[in-house]
Amino acid sequence: GENVEQHPSTLSVQEGDSAVIKCTYSDSASNYFPWYKQELGKGPQLIIDIRSNVGEKKDQRIAVTLNKTAKHFSLHITETQPEDSAVYFCAASLGQNAGNMLTFGGGTRLMVKP
Amino acid sequence: NAGVMQNPRHLVRRRGQEARLRCSPMKGHSHVYWYRQLPEEGLKFMVYLQKENIIDESGMPKERFSAEFPKEGPSILRIQQVVRGDSAAYFCASSPQQGTEAFFGQGTRLTVV
Protein backbone atom coordinates (compact mmCIF):
# COMPACT_ATOMS: atom_id res chain seq x y z
CA GLY A 1 0.00 0.00 0.00
CA GLU A 2 0.86 3.67 -0.11
CA ASN A 3 3.41 5.09 2.34
CA VAL A 4 3.87 8.83 2.89
CA GLU A 5 6.90 10.25 4.69
CA GLN A 6 6.90 13.86 5.90
CA HIS A 7 9.79 16.08 7.02
CA PRO A 8 10.60 17.85 9.20
CA SER A 9 8.52 16.78 12.18
CA THR A 10 8.94 20.21 13.78
CA LEU A 11 9.78 23.53 12.19
CA SER A 12 10.35 26.85 13.92
CA VAL A 13 10.59 30.05 11.88
CA GLN A 14 10.59 33.75 12.56
CA GLU A 15 7.53 35.73 11.54
CA GLY A 16 7.90 36.87 7.95
CA ASP A 17 10.23 34.03 6.97
CA SER A 18 9.27 31.20 4.63
CA ALA A 19 8.49 27.64 5.68
CA VAL A 20 8.90 24.54 3.55
CA ILE A 21 7.54 21.09 4.36
CA LYS A 22 8.41 18.09 2.21
CA CYS A 23 6.70 14.76 1.61
CA THR A 24 7.54 11.65 -0.37
CA TYR A 25 5.15 8.92 -1.45
CA SER A 26 5.70 5.37 -2.59
CA ASP A 27 2.84 4.50 -4.95
CA SER A 28 3.41 5.97 -8.41
CA ALA A 29 -0.32 5.55 -9.11
CA SER A 30 -1.24 8.21 -6.54
CA ASN A 31 -2.64 11.23 -8.31
CA TYR A 32 -4.13 13.53 -5.68
CA PHE A 33 -2.11 15.32 -2.99
CA PRO A 34 -3.89 17.52 -0.44
CA TRP A 35 -2.41 19.46 2.46
CA TYR A 36 -4.24 19.91 5.74
CA LYS A 37 -3.74 22.31 8.63
CA GLN A 38 -4.77 21.10 12.07
CA GLU A 39 -5.06 23.45 15.01
CA LEU A 40 -5.14 22.20 18.56
CA GLY A 41 -8.35 20.39 19.36
CA LYS A 42 -9.76 20.77 15.86
CA GLY A 43 -10.18 18.68 12.76
CA PRO A 44 -7.85 18.90 9.74
CA GLN A 45 -8.68 21.75 7.40
CA LEU A 46 -7.91 21.47 3.70
CA ILE A 47 -5.65 24.38 2.71
CA ILE A 48 -4.47 23.45 -0.77
CA ASP A 49 -4.32 20.43 -3.03
CA ILE A 50 -2.67 19.40 -6.28
CA ARG A 51 -3.35 16.74 -8.85
CA SER A 52 -0.74 14.78 -10.75
CA ASN A 53 -1.36 16.60 -14.03
CA VAL A 54 -0.10 19.85 -12.49
CA GLY A 55 3.42 20.67 -11.30
CA GLU A 56 2.68 23.68 -9.14
CA LYS A 57 -0.28 25.46 -7.61
CA LYS A 58 -0.40 28.69 -5.67
CA ASP A 59 -3.00 30.34 -3.46
CA GLN A 60 -1.89 33.66 -1.96
CA ARG A 61 0.92 32.86 0.52
CA ILE A 62 0.65 29.10 0.05
CA ALA A 63 2.09 27.06 -2.81
CA VAL A 64 2.50 23.37 -3.48
CA THR A 65 4.89 21.74 -5.92
CA LEU A 66 4.81 18.17 -7.22
CA ASN A 67 7.60 16.12 -8.77
CA LYS A 68 6.01 12.93 -10.09
CA THR A 69 9.30 11.44 -11.26
CA ALA A 70 10.87 11.73 -7.82
CA LYS A 71 7.55 11.07 -6.08
CA HIS A 72 7.75 14.03 -3.78
CA PHE A 73 5.70 17.13 -3.13
CA SER A 74 6.24 20.18 -0.98
CA LEU A 75 4.29 22.90 0.78
CA HIS A 76 5.68 26.44 0.75
CA ILE A 77 4.35 29.15 3.05
CA THR A 78 5.73 32.64 2.48
CA GLU A 79 5.59 35.63 4.81
CA THR A 80 4.64 33.43 7.74
CA GLN A 81 2.40 34.83 10.47
CA PRO A 82 1.83 33.64 14.06
CA GLU A 83 -1.60 32.32 13.05
CA ASP A 84 0.12 29.91 10.66
CA SER A 85 1.32 28.00 13.74
CA ALA A 86 -0.32 24.57 13.62
CA VAL A 87 0.34 20.98 12.61
CA TYR A 88 0.42 20.44 8.86
CA PHE A 89 -0.26 17.10 7.21
CA CYS A 90 0.39 16.01 3.67
CA ALA A 91 -1.58 13.16 2.15
CA ALA A 92 -1.73 11.08 -1.00
CA SER A 93 -4.60 9.33 -2.71
CA LEU A 94 -5.25 7.16 -5.71
CA GLY A 95 -8.11 9.51 -6.49
CA GLN A 96 -11.81 9.22 -7.00
CA ASN A 97 -11.72 6.02 -9.03
CA ALA A 98 -10.06 4.22 -6.13
CA GLY A 99 -12.33 5.62 -3.46
CA ASN A 100 -10.17 8.61 -2.57
CA MET A 101 -8.95 7.19 0.72
CA LEU A 102 -6.10 9.33 2.02
CA THR A 103 -2.74 8.14 3.32
CA PHE A 104 -1.31 10.80 5.62
CA GLY A 105 2.21 11.78 6.50
CA GLY A 106 3.22 11.97 10.14
CA GLY A 107 2.72 15.73 10.39
CA THR A 108 4.88 18.82 10.84
CA ARG A 109 4.45 21.07 13.84
CA LEU A 110 5.09 24.61 12.59
CA MET A 111 5.84 27.32 15.10
CA VAL A 112 6.00 30.92 13.91
CA LYS A 113 7.72 33.16 16.42
CA PRO A 114 6.59 36.80 16.51
CA ASN B 1 -23.97 25.05 4.58
CA ALA B 2 -22.99 23.37 7.81
CA GLY B 3 -19.77 21.44 7.83
CA VAL B 4 -19.25 17.83 8.81
CA MET B 5 -20.83 17.35 12.23
CA GLN B 6 -19.50 14.83 14.70
CA ASN B 7 -20.83 14.01 18.13
CA PRO B 8 -20.05 13.70 20.83
CA ARG B 9 -16.90 15.83 20.83
CA HIS B 10 -15.58 14.02 23.87
CA LEU B 11 -16.48 10.53 25.05
CA VAL B 12 -15.24 8.70 28.12
CA ARG B 13 -15.83 4.98 28.42
CA ARG B 14 -14.71 2.35 30.90
CA ARG B 15 -12.91 -0.70 29.62
CA GLY B 16 -15.39 -3.22 28.26
CA GLN B 17 -18.10 -0.69 27.43
CA GLU B 18 -19.32 0.24 23.96
CA ALA B 19 -18.56 3.51 22.18
CA ARG B 20 -20.79 4.92 19.45
CA LEU B 21 -19.50 7.82 17.40
CA ARG B 22 -21.75 9.73 15.03
CA CYS B 23 -21.02 11.65 11.86
CA SER B 24 -23.36 13.73 9.72
CA PRO B 25 -21.72 14.58 6.38
CA MET B 26 -21.97 17.91 4.66
CA LYS B 27 -25.19 18.49 2.76
CA GLY B 28 -25.04 16.84 -0.63
CA HIS B 29 -22.12 14.58 0.30
CA SER B 30 -22.76 10.87 -0.01
CA HIS B 31 -19.25 9.57 0.72
CA VAL B 32 -18.06 9.19 4.32
CA TYR B 33 -14.61 8.24 5.59
CA TRP B 34 -13.50 7.47 9.13
CA TYR B 35 -9.93 8.06 10.32
CA ARG B 36 -8.21 7.49 13.65
CA GLN B 37 -5.50 9.73 15.07
CA LEU B 38 -3.32 8.59 17.94
CA PRO B 39 -1.56 11.30 19.98
CA GLU B 40 1.28 12.98 18.10
CA GLU B 41 0.62 10.90 14.98
CA GLY B 42 -0.97 11.33 11.58
CA LEU B 43 -4.43 10.15 10.67
CA LYS B 44 -4.92 6.52 9.67
CA PHE B 45 -7.71 5.46 7.31
CA MET B 46 -10.26 3.07 8.80
CA VAL B 47 -13.31 2.72 6.57
CA TYR B 48 -15.04 4.25 3.54
CA LEU B 49 -18.82 4.14 3.20
CA GLN B 50 -21.52 5.29 0.88
CA LYS B 51 -25.20 5.22 1.74
CA GLU B 52 -26.05 1.70 2.94
CA ASN B 53 -22.76 0.30 1.65
CA ILE B 54 -19.29 -0.34 3.03
CA ILE B 55 -16.92 0.32 0.15
CA ASP B 56 -13.56 -0.28 1.80
CA GLU B 57 -12.86 -1.36 5.36
CA SER B 58 -9.23 -2.30 4.91
CA GLY B 59 -8.16 -0.06 7.79
CA MET B 60 -10.64 -1.38 10.34
CA PRO B 61 -9.45 -3.71 13.09
CA LYS B 62 -10.86 -7.17 12.48
CA GLU B 63 -12.67 -7.38 15.79
CA ARG B 64 -14.83 -5.05 17.91
CA PHE B 65 -15.05 -2.29 15.29
CA SER B 66 -17.95 -1.77 12.89
CA ALA B 67 -19.34 1.08 10.83
CA GLU B 68 -22.56 1.87 9.04
CA PHE B 69 -24.07 4.65 6.97
CA PRO B 70 -27.83 4.04 6.81
CA LYS B 71 -30.20 5.45 4.24
CA GLU B 72 -31.46 7.90 6.83
CA GLY B 73 -29.41 9.40 9.61
CA PRO B 74 -25.75 9.78 10.42
CA SER B 75 -22.89 7.39 9.90
CA ILE B 76 -22.02 5.44 13.04
CA LEU B 77 -18.65 4.06 14.10
CA ARG B 78 -19.15 1.47 16.82
CA ILE B 79 -16.46 0.09 19.08
CA GLN B 80 -17.45 -2.80 21.29
CA GLN B 81 -15.66 -3.80 24.50
CA VAL B 82 -13.31 -0.84 24.39
CA VAL B 83 -9.73 -1.17 25.60
CA ARG B 84 -7.24 1.53 26.61
CA GLY B 85 -5.54 1.29 23.22
CA ASP B 86 -8.73 2.54 21.57
CA SER B 87 -8.18 5.96 23.14
CA ALA B 88 -7.69 8.32 20.21
CA ALA B 89 -9.32 11.05 18.19
CA TYR B 90 -11.70 9.70 15.57
CA PHE B 91 -12.37 11.91 12.58
CA CYS B 92 -15.03 11.66 9.96
CA ALA B 93 -14.67 13.21 6.51
CA SER B 94 -17.14 13.57 3.67
CA SER B 95 -16.83 14.29 -0.01
CA PRO B 96 -19.27 14.96 -2.83
CA GLN B 97 -20.05 12.28 -5.32
CA GLN B 98 -18.14 13.85 -8.15
CA GLY B 99 -15.29 15.56 -6.29
CA THR B 100 -12.22 14.37 -4.50
CA GLU B 101 -11.86 16.99 -1.78
CA ALA B 102 -12.52 15.56 1.67
CA PHE B 103 -13.76 17.85 4.43
CA PHE B 104 -13.21 16.80 8.01
CA GLY B 105 -15.32 17.18 11.10
CA GLN B 106 -13.98 18.34 14.47
CA GLY B 107 -13.52 14.79 15.66
CA THR B 108 -14.56 12.74 18.67
CA ARG B 109 -11.94 12.29 21.34
CA LEU B 110 -12.42 8.91 22.97
CA THR B 111 -10.83 8.23 26.30
CA VAL B 112 -10.97 4.74 27.76
CA VAL B 113 -10.43 4.58 31.51
Nearest-angstrom radius of gyration of chain B?
13 Å
Label the overall shape of chain B: globular
Helix-strand category of chain B: mainly beta
Greatest interface = A-B, 23 and 28 residues
Shape type of chain A = globular
Tally the helices of chain B: what do you get? 0
Number of DSSP E strands of chain A: 11
Low-confidence spans of chain B: none
Terminal CA distance of chain A reads 41 Å
| Share in helix of chain A | under 10%
Order of helices and strands of chain A: EEEEEEEEEEE
What is the makeup of the main sheet of chain B? Answer: 7 strands, mixed
Poorly predicted tracts of residues of chain A: none
Structural features, described:
- The complex is a heterodimer of chains A (114) and B (113).
- Chain A has 114 residues and is mainly β.
- Helices cover 0% and strands 55% of the residues of chain A.
- Chain A has no helices and eleven strands.
- In chain A, the strands form two sheets. In chain A, strands 2, 4, 5, 9, 10 and 11 form a six-stranded mixed β-sheet that branches. Chain A has a five-stranded antiparallel β-sheet with strand order 1-3-8-7-6, with no helix packed on it.
- In chain A, a hairpin with a 2-residue loop joins β6 and β7.
- Chain A is globular.
- The model of chain A has no long low-confidence stretch (mean pLDDT 93).
- Chain B is mainly beta and 113 residues long.
- Helix content of chain B is 0%, strand content 52%.
- In chain B, the strands form two sheets. In chain B, strands 2, 4, 5, 6, 9, 10 and 11 form a seven-stranded mixed β-sheet that branches.
- In chain B, β4 and β5 (43-50) form a beta hairpin.
- The radius of gyration of chain B is 13 Å and the shape is globular.
- The model of chain B has no long low-confidence stretch (mean pLDDT 92).
- Classes of the chains: A mainly beta (114), B mainly beta (113).
- At the A-B interface, β4, β5 and β10 of A face β4, β5, β9 and β10 of B.
